[in-house]
Amino acid sequence: MGIREAEEATGISRQNIRFYEKQGLLHPARNKRNSYREYSDEDILRLKQIRLFRKLGMPLDEIRRLLEGDVDLMQALEEQERRLAVEAEHLKASRQFIKKIHDTSLDEMDVDRCLQSMEEEEKRGAVFGKFAEDYKKTALAETKRSFGFKPDTMCRTPEEFTLELCKYAKENDLNLVITKEGMNPEFTIDGIEYKAYRTSGRYGITIGCEMKHPENYIPSDMSEDRYNRVRRIYRIVNVCFFLLIIVGGVCSWKGNAGALIIPLLAFAVYIGVLIRWHQKNK
Question: What is the pLDDT along the chain (282 residues), one digit of tens a residue?
Fold first, then answer.
């Protein structure tokens, strides 16, 4: 079909259709006789998909990555949800600032002071927001370095071991490829090499999986130096949180739960100092 029919079928103006073509999101064929564009059913479907994701506010670059298979739908939607959450926080801050100057006339408004106040708020939000994003990536990376699960069988043979690994990968939507079978099998997940082992304990069999070369693993979009800093903070937070649980249990057992306020405040201050240290060393 021609561009007029494509416009009617998708609800997208021909100007936008041509724009998407220029952006490399669409590649319609050309009629050999007159060089007019001809839009296939696949092109129409893609245009409808673009329209849907644009209505969700998804950037064109992200839509391109999704349509080209660089990211899956879940990843793209989670990233867009994060963007919308950031935007919602920005809108919330804007509404709060509007309330502050609501009763001020234009002549009375101190523009320089307002701009300075807004920039300070944005800076504080950016510092915490960036650290929160780095911390999230680091926490996810730590779960990738080693993990374990309970198999449905005793894994007494290499075949059972392989079956349980593949079953775990399918349940968790992992791109797992077995590279070496055995009672200490090896495999890859998204190109990262792992080795697995079987342990027997009081509560049954557990399969443990570890990266073969964890020293080489760094999350995407993070420098090695930044990742190592946030990783140290992540480890410290986990240790401090564990100690707080112990202190809280002891205080509750002795009937003095109020004493927990002091270590909680100290913990909050300490984490704040770590965050500022991380930002200053970026």
Answer: 888 899 999 999 888 898 888 888 888 888 777 778 888 999 999 999 999 999 988 888 889 889 988 888 998 898 888 888 877 877 777 777 777 777 777 677 777 777 777 666 655 555 555 666 777 788 888 888 899 999 999 999 999 999 999 999 999 888 899 999 999 999 999 888 999 999 988 878 999 999 998 888 887 667 777 788 888 877 877 777 666 666 666 666 666 656 556 556 665 655 565 555 544 444
Q: Give the total residue count for the chain.
A: 282
For residue 34, give the amino acid letter. Answer: N
Count of helix runs (H) and strand runs (E) in the chain:
9, 7
Kindly report the backbone phi and psi dihedral angles of residue 103, in degrees, each rounded to the nearest multiple of 5, phi listed first: -95, 10
Contact 114, 157 (CB under 8 A): no
Nearest in space to 14 (alpha carbons), one of 60, 47, 49: 47
Report the distance separating Cα 282 and Cα 149, nearest Å. 36
The residue assigned the tokens 């342990």 is 199
How far apart (Å, rounded) are the C-alpha atoms in residues 82 and 22? 28
- The whole-angstrom separation of Cα 37 and Cα 11 is 18
Q: How far apart are CA 224 and CA 246, in angstroms?
A: 33
Q: Which residues pair with 260 in a beta bridge?
A: none
End-to-end CA distance of the chain: 53
